[in-house]
Structure formats: C-alpha cells, structure tokens
Specification:
The protein is mainly beta. It has one domain: Alpha-Beta Plaits (2-Layer Sandwich). It contains one helix and four strands, in the order E-E-E-H-E. The strands form two sheets. It has a two-stranded antiparallel ribbon. A two-stranded antiparallel sheet has the order 2-3. The longest helix has 5 residues. It is globular, with a radius of gyration of 10 Å. The structure holds iron/sulfur cluster (2 copies). The site of one iron/sulfur cluster has 15 residues, from helix 1.
Length: about 60
C-alpha cells in the first residue's frame, strides 16, 4: 500500500501532476494541488513524482 501527499508549501501550483495520476488522486484547487479521495489508493507508479518540477509530491510505502 502506498500513501501520497503533496506539500502545500513546496507546490508551485503548476498543475502538471493532476493529469498524470491514473488513480485521479490529485486535483488542482485554489492554485495548489491537493490529494482528493482516499490517499491510500495510490498505486505507487511515481508518475506524479517524475512530473513534479518542485519535489512537492511524496509517496510512502506502508
Ligand atoms: S504515485 Fe501514481 S497513483 Fe500515486 S498519486 Fe502519484 S500518479 Fe497517482
Ligand atoms: S506537479 Fe508539483 S508543483 Fe506542480 S501542481 Fe503538482 S505538486 Fe504542485
């Protein structure tokens, strides 16, 4: 199981990650990206980490 998190202080709001997530866990809200739904549905594919230019996304394997 993986858990995804976005650091709001590091996120620059580029909105690059939302479309990269096959589980639709990342949503652009008020200029920042937030994790929506069940963060434990992250599949650990690392698409969001690869595309994020700010290093704002982390996934943790539980
Ligand atoms: S690792 Fe993959 S499934 Fe998990 S939040 Fe990132 S893009 Fe979505
Ligand atoms: S790709 Fe990174 S900097 Fe851009 S919106 Fe997503 S978390 Fe924020």
């Amino acid at each position: 199981m993986y858990i995804v998190a976005v650091d709001p202080d590091t996120c620059s709001g580029c909105d690059a990650c939302a479309d990269s997530c096959p589980a639709h866990l990342l949503k652009f809200v008020d200029g920042k990206t937030e994790v929506v739904g069940d963060e434990t549905e992250c599949m650990g594919c690392e698409s969001c980490i690869t595309i994020c230019p700010s290093g704002a996304v982390t996934i943790t394997e539980m």
